[in-house]
Amino acid sequence: MISTEKRQKVRRGLTIYANLLFDGGRELEGMQTMDISSTGARFRTMYSRSVGEAVMLRPCDTYNNFPLECKGRISWVNLTPDGYCHFGVRFVDLSCDEQEQLNAFLEEKSREKRPTFKPVFLQVAS
What we know:
Thrombin, subunit H, 6-stranded antiparallel beta barrel, two-stranded antiparallel sheet, 1 helix
């Protein structure tokens, strides 16, 4: 799924894993993106976050992990009725090389064939 919404860059509905280190030293490991672009990403957690909060994104040891360590800042927060906190991280201070590396990574992941799941019907003995 690709959407642009009101953003300048294309958002890709890719699940990429990253460790997020927040102000105050709290680290959330293995966070999954809900969508991502070359300028930012959207995450979901059960922990409240604040607009303007600094965050460091770090690679984690899983498949589809975030390809580089970069700084970010929370640009928006949305608390949902089911108790989740959705928040957007805008990447900051990326060098040209890091920007190219991130763009190449996102293009590669967008082209990968994703597994399709077929329903399995089990016959119940009567």
